[in-house]
Amino acid sequence: MIDRFNHPDYNRWAAQIKRSGGCRQPIHLRGKVEHYDQATGELLHRYTTRTEPDGILRVPCKTRRASRCPACAETYRADTYQLVRAGLVGGKGVPETVSAHPCLFVTLTAPSFGAVHVRREKSGKVLPCHARRNAETCPHGQVMSCTRRHSADDTCLGEPLCPDCYDYEGSVLFNAVSPELWRRFTEALRRRFAKLSGLTLKALREQAVISFAKVAEYQRRGVVHFHAVIRLDGPDGPTSPPPAWASADALADAVQHAASVVTTDVKPLGRTFRWGSQLDVRRITMDGDLTDQAVAAYIAKYATKAAECVGTLDRRIQPLDDLDALPIRPHARRLIAECMRLGALDDLADLRLTQWAHMLGFRGHFSTKSRRYSTTLGKLRAAREEHMRAENITTGRLPLFDEDTVLVIAHWEYAGQGLSAGELLLAAAITGTQLPADGGDV
Ligand SMILES: [Zn+2]
Ligand SMILES: [Zn+2]
Ligand SMILES: [Zn+2]
Fold it and tell me: How far is the CA of 300 from the centre of ligand 3 (A)?
């Protein structure tokens, strides 16, 4: 820290850190950008990292995961919020008229894989976890009852009453096939909605489009469920009004039906998976119980979380890792061990369970949307970079060129990642961000 602080190029280093927005693990780039006049071949401007501190430029890691880099995850969260919100009320290139389109907030859950400890509340009072008067005793001698009133941070929440009875195989397989189950759900929804409307799928497409934005959330028991915004548009997407006959109620009916009928198989093991019976379908309105803002914030919050909330690891499991020695809870350990066991079966190779063991089998994207939903994260990022470029021009760092007449040649190479422990302290002070609880292992 003292070395860095007393170095002659400290100010330039601090400027880089400021620009990376408090990123905890910035990527180091080495390279140059040259601007040439296309007509004359004259070099107009050159930027090279050779004059930068240590000869490198530090840029944000852009991770989605708050456990790795809170600052970049916050950027991702804010972008996701804007993206979801634009699809609800307009903005970012989506017309405001979209707010009048029928729109639902839907939660699709996983089925049960065995009784787990839960915290239930009713009118402000915490209820007993699993109170059963004549509770059975399982083959492992465990009475299938728990009368405790668990606190919100009780570590046993989400863990099975009897781990030996718990269907670990089902749990990780459900995670693995859930993206396919979601895809089948969206297809079934379109088919059902067409049928309810008395149209063929093709005829429906000429009159209305169903758009989605969704996030995956890990429940404490270690299975994913999905929160989705489902919206009805006219044939051209958010810019066109849905036909007058298309109502939110009909859409909700179709959601209920589609969620209850779709299944997906894991043939080699003879297992079939479907959504859990807990299906939540609510209308999103501008001013009611469930507002557009609340939904956008909710979805954005989950977009930055991953399976580490369940107490698993924040990285891939390596072949030489000693599972028993990993600093995780027994439930997560058994879920990971089950992924490794199933991942070794040739018949299940396409589920890639070994590679995704740390995610407890889920290898889907955390937040996705259909093409027509709203803007894209890429466009939001490009807009931010354009804004920074404009700022660089006005502050004199980049000369202003007419884009059509200038040839830009850039060459970058990866030169590492992260900050030293001392740099991390300085970076936290400069950007007002928090230090990692463990002092950082970057
Ligand atoms: Zn970062
Ligand atoms: Zn309990
Ligand atoms: Zn048991």
Answer: 38
